[in-house]
Write a structure and sequence with these properties.
With about 260 residues, the chain is of the alpha+beta class. Helix content is about 50%, strand content about 20%. Strands 5-4-7-8-1-2-3-6 form an 8-stranded antiparallel β-sheet. A hairpin with a 5-residue loop joins strand 2 and strand 3. Helix 4 crosses helix 6. The radius of gyration is 39 Å and the shape is elongated.
Length: about 260
């Protein structure tokens, strides 16, 4: 059974307001003994109803009572001390009218309290969902920080190397830096001063192996860094500006930075 859905069905509120059926009451009494969350929900609802009903349970205004009983008294012919005669049917009619006024006030109050309770309950659920979402986001951030720390430790440990790629002629004063771990398996682009790629364009990293370019990956959001697999036997690395999604071969006149390994 989905206990969360059962609690949200409104059966607890119906039970406390006295409008639940016999079978519903029996089922709730059974479930509250089995599931602690049902019992807790009942207590929470009882406390809330007590808290909001006590200050709101003010008597019917005196003027309303006076008007009701003045009408009855007038119909009975009792005004100014004069006794009158009235049939039981007419007296019954006005007594019922007075009762209906009081009953209607009670029903309206119950409805207002019930709706207020439901609204507050929904607000609590929204806050719980937001809290859960923040917890998930926090866990993701913590996982990323741990991953960042591991990557940087590998890239800066003893035996790691640093590859500085300077701007090629005619491309300004840009510079990008690659860190290679001591096992030669991973590259981190940790410093990148390249300008933002224009719409429809994307930077691409290339390894130069025996004088031939080898695709090493696309540069996306390199904050705090971009990670690439190291290319075996690479003598140099370069970055070019290519159409979004990258190219099979580099566009040489769009090369921005270039650097030799162990330079």
């Amino acid at each position: 059974m989905d206990i969360h859905a059962y609690i949200q069905s409104g059966i607890i509120e119906s039970y406390l307001l006295g409008i639940a059926g016999d079978e519903e009451k029996q089922e709730l009494d059974r479930l509250r003994r089995i599931y602690p969350e049902v019992e807790n929900a009942i207590h929470h609802a009882e406390e809330w109803l007590h808290g909001v009903s006590t200050p709101a349970a003010t008597p019917v205004p005196a003027k309303v009572k006076e008007q009701i009983f003045a009408t009855i008294q007038e119909e009975l012919g009792m005004n100014n001390g004069i006794s009158g005669i009235i049939t039981g049917g007419r007296l019954y009619k006005y007594l019922v009218a007075a009762s209906l006024i009081l009953l209607t006030s009670s029903v309206i109050l119950n409805m207002v309290l019930y709706r207020k309770y439901r609204t507050e309950k929904k607000n609590v659920l929204v806050l719980q969902e937001e809290q859960q979402s923040l917890l998930v986001q926090n866990n993701l951030v913590q996982a990323k920080l741990i991953s960042f720390g591991d990557d940087l430790n590998k890239a800066t440990s003893s035996g790691s190397s640093r590859i500085v790629m300077d701007a090629v002629a005619g491309k300004g004063k840009f510079q990008s830096t690659l860190l290679m771990d001591n096992a030669g398996k991973q590259l981190l682009l940790v410093s990148n001063s390249l300008p933002a790629a224009p719409a429809g364009k994307q930077y691409q990293l290339w390894a130069i192996v025996n004088g031939k370019p080898v695709n090493a990956g696309l540069l996306n959001d390199c904050m705090p860094y971009c990670k690439f697999p190291s290319i075996a036997r690479a003598q140099a690395y370069a970055v070019t500006l290519e159409p979004s999604g990258g190219s099979i071969d580099p566009t040489l006149d769009q090369m921005f930075v270039f650097g030799k390994v162990n330079s």
